[in-house]
Amino acid sequence: MAKVYMIGAMKGGVGKSVSVFNLAYSLQKQGKRVLAVDFDPQSNLTTCFGSEEEADVTIGDLMMSVLEEEELPDRSEYVWERNGVDFIPASINLSAVEAKLRLEMGTERMLSVILEQLRDDYDYVLIDTAPSLGALNINAMVVADEVIVAVNPQLLAMKGLQDFLKTVRKIKSRINEKLDVAGILLTMCDARTNLCRTITEQVEESFQGQIRIFESKIPSTVKVGESVYYSEPLLEYAPNSAACRAYEKLAGEVIAYEG
């Protein structure tokens, strides 16, 4: 049965969706069966896969079916495959679903209903989420085993991290006792700047011994943006780049963490 990771952040623009995209392919390269789920109304992960205009059935449609107690369509209608990695796309209609979730009671397990039918087919399920603490993210935390928090080592990106971790603790104590924080992933790191070095050191000092800080730190590089433009993972577009090596190392950390 798959280990489910929610990848979250408290601020947009920290490379979260790109990290899900490249981590999925790095895990697949190591022989793992991976399902990536776009659970963000901005659908950036769907854009990474190059399928924003192709999908007739998205995660929003599936969530609405569960809310309305309707039968889910066959998985062939909503599970896409790109070069060995499966994924479920999203669209802006997920925003309407979030609004509906807030109006009804007992909706925190809607995503679980969808993913529980798929878990046996994969080693890892990676859920890309919106930079918020809304109803969608609560659904993601309820189904997840672990949370990876993506943080850009800049001052504004650090704000809200404690609130995010506090929410994880609440979900763990009230709804999903198996939920834990797998670690903090530092993204878009420019080690040449004093600010990056300073905030990275602060993160490590603040959480060392409490929450894991992944050794893999994703560097800021133009290759990442170029690969997204061409809807190709770094393993295909720039396999020798520093960012690609960092994601491969991250995949190794995630796998080792299971052991």
Work out the helix count.
Answer: 12
Side by side, the strands of the main sheet go: 3-4-2-5-1-6-7
Order of helices and strands: EHEHHEEHHEHEHHEHHHH
User: Rough shape?
Assistant: globular
Mean pLDDT: 88
Strand-residue proportion: 5-15%
Low-confidence spans: pLDDT under 50, at least 5 residues? none
Q: Please state the CA-atom Rg, rounded to the nearest Å.
A: 17 Å
Distance between the terminal alpha carbons, to the nearest Å?
A: 15 Å
Largest sheet: 7 strands, mixed
β-strand number: 7
Map the helices and strands:
Blueprint: E1 3-8, H1 16-29, E2 34-39, H2 44-49, H3 59-67, E3 80-82, E4 85-88, H4 93-103, H5 110-115, E5 124-129, H6 135-143, E6 146-151, H7 155-158, H8 161-174, E7 180-186, H9 194-207, H10 222-229, H11 234-237, H12 242-258
Parallel strand pairs: 1-5, 1-6, 2-4, 2-5, 6-7
Antiparallel strand pairs: 3-4
Helix pairs in contact: 1-12, 3-4
Task: Give an overview in words.
The structure is a single chain. This protein is α/β, with parallel strands linked by helices. It has twelve helices and seven strands. The protein has helices spanning 16-29, 44-49, 59-67, 93-103, 110-115, 135-143, 155-158, 161-174, 194-207, 222-229, 234-237, 242-258, and strands at 3-8, 34-39, 80-82, 85-88, 124-129, 146-151, 180-186. α1 (16-29) crosses α12 and α3 packs parallel to α4 (93-103). The radius of gyration is 17 Å and the shape is globular. The model has no long low-confidence stretch (mean pLDDT 88).
